[in-house]
Amino acid sequence: MNTIINWDDGTNDTICLTYNDNVENQNVSVSSEPNNTIQARSKTVTFQTITGGVATQQLDIEQQSRERSYSQGYGAAYK
What does pTM read for this prediction? Predict the structure, then answer.
């Protein structure tokens, strides 16, 4: 199963959460497009269970900005 969430950072980039439908044990995989902006970005996702009462857990997702910047004025890449 997949859930797609927007980063809400002014780009069209998304976060994809991939998980199974096993109510006893969950593994969640997080993926996203590369962050090509100059700003790091973060998002908090809240998981909620309804088995045996309501319980919530939060997952903080952080993605650093691009590793390289490019100066058009000098035509040089900086790391």
Answer: 0.72
